[in-house]
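Supplementary Text 2. Reproducibility record for the structural model of the 395-residue chain.

All settings were left at their defaults, and a single model was retained for analysis rather than an ensemble. We include the record here because the model underlies the residue-level annotations in Supplementary Table 4.
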Amino acid sequence: MRRLAVVLIAAVVGLASAQVTIGILAPLTGGSAGTGQAQKAGFELALAEINAAGGVLGQPLRIIIEDDRADPATSVAAFEKLMTEDGVEFIAGGFASGATLALVESFRTFQPIVSWIGGASSGIGNDDFEGIEELLGEEEWFFHVHPWDYQNVEATFGFIEDLGVGSVALLHEDGAFGTPGAAGLEAGVEQMGIPVVLREAFTSTLTGGTGDFRATLSKVGAANPDMLYWIGYDSDAQPLSSQLKELGVAPAYVFGAPPGWPTGIEAAPEMECVMGLIGYLPNLPNPEAVAFANAYREMHGAYPDNYMAALAYAQLWSYADAINAAGTTDQAAVIEKLQTMTFRSPMGDWSFKPSVIAKHQGFGSDMWLVFQFQNGVREIVWPADRATAPLAACR
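Retained model, structure tokens:
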């Protein structure tokens, strides 16, 4: 996946530039370490390809990855270290909404260009909440890659309608990620005439929860919904699923919506038939997906199992392409290229365009696929034109 035309612009015009460094925040340890390590692996692959193709402005691109643990205080300290000690001009990465909200004032103080993978929290559809889209979306220097939470839930509406779901129980983590997402989902399914028979908040294991969901899941059993839909973090997935089995709570459909899934979770028996959203899987048939999967496997020894690897890869390439097209690290020039260029990714071509509030939103609801764990494999089951297997009936 080499793109020489753009990356060689600097050499053609004869520029001699200092090495460009991009600072990255990712949860390399802690409850979301699997997702952070997937991001790191995607960044490493993109970095190797970028430098093999000529680097950025005629020099090898450099990245500095700081572990933010998806923790607010750690994230702020790591970001300010990148700005004051490392002197970076460009920021990438990002994951948890709570950590991102803690970074808002620091972002505004330093105002580098920020291209942010995570932090999907928005107040759209929730008048009582201001999310990252409201707080940062109108800043010229802020670019958001991952779909917003209302775009996440929008992606499931057609699937839920196609299934003919009669009722939904909705569980959500009680922070900045799950609360607005749950509000949007509840409003959307009720507009379709589907009752939400239970809505219950829980404290995620990522933010201090015990991981014991039995009391809440017992309420799900009593409500007897067709679908259990939960919004939480990757560390919630296995305890939630195993306790469902333990209690004998068996909705016809179980749908999880974490921003990432733990590595290797598909092998756990309790995950059989659980469904979820994912932006990328190695079994997608488009050429970009196949090339990325093969290159990732060659570098890391396994196929990518977390779509955040593909988003990180796309994010770093977009920076390299935009800076090279600008021919400079001047902020205004790079912003102009980021907001006008089209970039390639394992999910296909993409660009930054306005969302409801944000000036620069990357991927939207059309990025999402619905998969189902089937016999230890994540099979795409919706939309039909990209399905790799039919939906399995599991009740």
